[in-house]
Amino acid sequence: xxxxxxxxxxxxxxxxxxxxxxxxxxxxxxxxxxxxxxxxxxxxxxxxxxxxxxxxxxxxxxxxxxxxxxxxxxxxxxxxxxxxxxxxxxxxxxxxxxxxxxxxxxxxxxxxxxxxxxxxxxxxxxxxxxxxxxxxxxxxxxxxxxxxxxxxxxxxxxxxxxxxxxxxxxxxxxxxxxxxxxxxxxxxxxxxxxxxxxxxxxxxxxxxxxxxxxxxxxxxxxxxxxxxxxxxxxxxxxxxxxxxxxxxxxxxxxxxxxxxxxxxxxxxxxxxxxxxxxxxxxxxxxxxxxxxxxxxxxxxxxxxxxxxxxxxxxxxxxxxxxxxxxxxxxxxxxxxxxxxxxxxxxxxxxxxxxxxxxxxxxxxxxxxxxxxxxxxxxxxx
Length: 381
Known about the structure:
Blueprint: H1 8-22, H2 41-71, E1 83-86, H3 93-96, H4 113-120, E2 126-134, E3 138-145, E4 148-154, E5 157-162, E6 167-168, H5 172-178, E7 184-186, H6 194-211, E8 224-226, E9 234-239, E10 242-247, H7 253-270, E11 274-278, E12 286-289, E13 294-296, H8 332-355
Parallel strand pairs: 1-3, 4-7, 7-8, 10-11
Antiparallel strand pairs: 2-3, 4-5, 5-6, 8-9, 9-10, 11-12, 12-13
């Protein structure tokens, strides 16, 4: 039988009807209007009034809550018993409570926690402080105290110092109770800037760390350290019957300490009046006698003071390298010191040579050779 085909006009009408019902009610590319932006003017006015009502209600609730917290007696700090503190060992409550003196009777929400923390950290023994509120009416303080690492001596006064160079005071009885066993440091002046004291303490900490790095605890053999010059740690080494001042410089502390221990018995036997040892050179040391004279090359090299070379002025403990042809090490400070010592030695030789001449300008053959010299000028910066 012949196939029956539908009317083309009917198909087009049906397709158009389906597209009309499925087509969105907004133009292509135009975004939908959000819910909080009504299309009509009346809707927008109504929505704005609702928003103002909600905002006003929240504001009123906030003001009411603030008034309640401000006026309610339960949130007031009644007395010092409401100030709790932990971590107090060397600091007493009597030292801490004045920081919160004006907060007694005040609303707890009006206490500035950051300001109180800064005030607490100004107490010398306080390294770090934490201040917090405990509702309804308590303040809790947590203290981390400083830990001393050495004794300090200022004149006849003995104190303590921490790793950051902060000077700490403690009674002699308290020191004895703690059984502290530290070297005594000199050159840590309370009038120096905090950065300068911290630099000197860094040298001290590196020195002690290197000496104990092998587990032998060599630092226990040290009694006193002079840190006046941070580029030269001067260590007082206790020996039988006397103390020897050893110049350790600013680095290679363990190597220099082992060199000292390996030769000190030999040096003391050869030089009974040995007072100081300069260990800042690679291949040499410079020995200073109690009379102020120096002897170079105690390490076995063949460099000796030249004939006629004047020795250091007696009592000058800093004349460790005068008259010695020492080979400087890798330290920049040692190289600078060696160059300066060489210039001074040449100046002394010139002055000595001129002093031996008579007024007429001829050399006196019978003039005795000088064994003393002018003290060298103070080393500049």
